[in-house]
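Side project, low priority. Logging it here so it doesn't get lost.
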Amino acid sequence: MQRKPVRGALAAIVVAAATVLVGVALTSAPARAAGTGTGYLRTSGNKIVDSTGATVRLTGINWFGMETDNRTFHGLWSSNPWRGQVDTMANLGYNTLRIPYSNDALKAGATATGINDFVNPDLVGNSPLQILDKVIAYAGSKGMRVILDRHRPTSAQQTALWYTAAVPESTWISDWRMLAQRYANNPTVIGADLHNEPHAEGTNPAATGACWGCGDTNRDWRLAAERAGNAILGVQPNWLIFVEGVSCPSGGLSNVWDGDTSNDEDCGWWGGNLSKAGQFPVRLSVANRLVYSPHDYAISVYHQSWFDAPNYPANLPAIWDKYWGYLFKQNTAPIMLGEFGTTLADPKDRVWLTNLMSYLGSGTGGMSFTYWSWNPNSGDTGGIANDDWTTINQAKQSIISPYLIAPTGGGPTTGPTTGPTTGPTTPAPQGDCDATYRSTNSWQGGFQGELTVTNRGSAPANPWRVTWTWPSGVTLGSGWNATVTQSGTTITAAAPTWSPALAPGASVTVGFTANGTAAAPGAVALNGTTC
């Protein structure tokens, strides 16, 4: 098995924000959404179910950066505020956020960098954990769930084993216990992806990488997952424990130079090989908490031999069955495909993604997943967001969209979950549309707000277009959930290509930042009809 490249190049525009970590237990109302259920989650056979027993399917996305030198989410340097990015994810239908981190981001005194403080003034001076708190709280207000992913021991690179000399197993486990305690009363956070992509190192028989079922406590990932998972459940018994696979069950690479292929091991993607989990299952101290979480990728990450098979893509389901799908099909445990992604640069990649989505299944009966990634700066996959961190890669989204189960909270919120509301909610008179404005932030020389417009007519607005006016001297800074432009004192928010129609009774929330004295939008209209 060849090694998969490390994803996530660092970006420019680095603004340091020094602060001290604050260890607090955060609470929020239980999440209630069509895709993510009510209360905490557990497993039942190959299903994830909520506190009422209803089947839940996680259809999410990865937003990385906290595992890098920035120690916080990438894209905070862009012109799209962080809430706007979460809004777009929810509105597209992603009901879960998988958030990678490194232990460096959890250290006392860790600082978050790469933040555009003009666009995100509410993040200035926040530690990585404090920013994480805000993202979790806001995602929860949208009806989304959050999975925390220990991606790397340090921000330097991915590691084959879950520990290093600098970050021993004790630190790995103690940091997980800290996070479990921090979010112990917040059902938005549903679980722990224990370590990202354990994989083989060294040439057999001198293997030094992560094995599965070999019995060596220093290398057996299955045993380590039990130790960490049980430690977490001792603090927070309601969490799901997400366990990835390895690459080669032996933990070592085959000697390709000896010419003897009879003993060559069948390997897969880093973290993607769960072929031994049926024989050597992960045993947790709390029943119904285990979710297996493999990874799978396309040619843009590495050109695996099966992409060249004469029966491609008909060969793919058998490959997925062998590595991880059998666990779902035999009703052993749920599958949550934690990472999969592609640039779509190779025509075979589109075929791969289309077939993979079909294999995962549709509706609540399908396997759960979190796509890699929201970020456009993932070097070997690109993202759902384009380079502006605002518009969407429609080619990818159109393949994934039919399988998404949107959070019911993906529309407007009733109030901010972090920070004060700096202005009242202002309803406008009822007509063919109505409008509600909410001021979400303000600072010297600028402000941030959300305008929600509801179609009260009997026909869809397709494409929809919202206009409003501002007093002279107020200028647009940035906008999201629409293409927002300004001409004189008139602002136009045009429907994005990924959501052109506004059905009767449906609402759209346009977010923006502006320069000047805070002012509510005036003369709001939907497709020319005043609200």
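Brief comment: The chain has two domains: 42-256+263-403, 433-530.
Revisit when time allows.
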